[in-house]
Amino acid sequence: MLYEVFKLDTVKTLKCRECGKEYPPTKIYACEDCFAPLDSTYDYESLQLTRRDFRERPKSIWRYFELLPVSDRSNIVDLGVGYTPLHQADRLGKTLGLKNLYIKDDTVNPTYSFKDRPVAVAVSKALEFNATAIGCASTGNLAAASAAHAAKAGLPCYVFVPNDTEHNKIVQIGAYGANILTVNGTYDEANRLAIQVSEEYNWVFPNFNVRPYYVEGSKTLAFEVCEQLNWSPPDHVIVPTGSGALLCAIGKGFDEFKTLDLIEDVNIKITSAQPHGCSPVVTAFKRGETVVEPLEHPNTIAKSLAIGDPGDGAYVIKRVKESGGLAESATDEEIVEAIKLLARTEGVFAEPAGGVTVAVLKKLIENGHISCDETIVCYVTGNGLKTPQAILNRIPRPIEIEPSLDSLKTVLKPKEVTVWSR
Ligand SMILES: *Cc1c(COP(=O)(O)O)cnc(C)c1O
Ligand SMILES: [Zn+2]
User: Fold this and answer.
1) What is the pLDDT of residues 106-158, one digit of tens each?
2) Ligand 1, atom 14: nearest CA belongs to which residue?
3) What CATH class has 86-111+215-393?
4) Distance CA 133, CA 390 (A)
């Protein structure tokens, strides 16, 4: 039994990002010596993956099983996450003056954000660690993904949310049967409570006590883009940044495909996009600093990016710099305009985090930082139906008519009406 577990383990070690010390892949999430994050490493030498291997595989993140940290396939909690569309965005590209623009559309994951990717891995891991429940402190997307996957795994889920959390998010989380605990306090206080809980009970908190495994789910966003571009990697990707875990994972994904010779060893620029009201990484990058100064009071409509003290902030700066990418922010006004532009040109309705990437792309083009023939991928990570209030007052009001053709004719635009000939 023990032998089998070791034989099946895809992860070789957990390696400290700072001092390089390696640990066996257990439920440990920070280096004992320097408290830095740990990264999953795999036996890249003996993995004999070829492009052809992926042809017949399921259209979900689990097609990359060998590169995900789950030991036994029977533990996979599978809601069909991932392998989302990569849209060739010709109409948006034309508007912005780009020839090769793509939208990676993660608005269509099972719970409507990319968080399904890391949470699918974390909850599968919870089964391997015999956790008795899933717990999470969150204000939205992470909680919804955790609640849905806990339901599928048959595990109870406890969600700690600040008491001012939006109604529609509570409804989604509640529908999956999670226990919702509204904490009389801020998100940070809810989070501190969650940490105390994790010290008391054998619960898995996806983005906390199994973080080295959790983050691995997000690197599939790099793998899929390579495959969907027929194995020729993009020149430049734009990634929304909150804690920075997503951007670092995407960088790691491209690195792993290079290591495995699945893609050519070309440079891929990685750009970090933040909302102006919470842009500590962009501020540090522009000042040429390598550490990120925490922001006390984030204030932005892009709430899923409103993390004032980004855990991976310094690593984002490192990745962005090494890749030759940039860091830029967009105001709430620019974010709303970008949400509308994306929806109207490509038919993709994003939450503000997705608007941030498109708004930042627009700004970088206007400032001459991007040339028109680069192949660019914009990551759009969350669905607009999660946050209708962001644009509610910025779309045209419905037009009221009587149920008659005459009434309709009074409101139609003449040039849109041509007579149908039989
Ligand atoms: C969490 C989240 C992000 C940011 O991910 P980080 O890993 O915190 O940087 C981006 N978009 C959406 C929709 C999210 O929910
Ligand atoms: Zn260390």
Assistant:
1) 999 999 999 999 999 999 999 999 999 999 998 789 999 999 999 999 999 99
2) 304
3) alpha beta
4) 33
pLDDT over 90 (residue 50): yes
Q: Name the amino acid, one letter, at 84.
A: T
Ligand 1 near 101 CB (within 6 A): no
**Nearest-CA neighbor of 187 among 309, 30, 284?**
309
List pLDDT tens digits, range 264-289: 999 999 999 999 999 999 999 999 99
Q: Which of 129, 114, 167 is nearest to 378 (CA)?
A: 114
Tell me how far CA of residue 130 lies from CA of 4, 125, 201, 278, 311, in angstroms. Answer: 17, 9, 12, 37, 27
For ligand 2, the distance from its centroid to the CA atom of residue 143, given in whole angstroms, is 30
Q: So where are the chain's domains?
A: 86-111+215-393
**Residues in contact with 362: Cβ distance below 8 Å, sequence separation at least 6, in sequence order:** 96, 334, 338, 341
Place of tokens 């060893």: 265
Residue that wins the pLDDT comparison between 187 and 229: 229
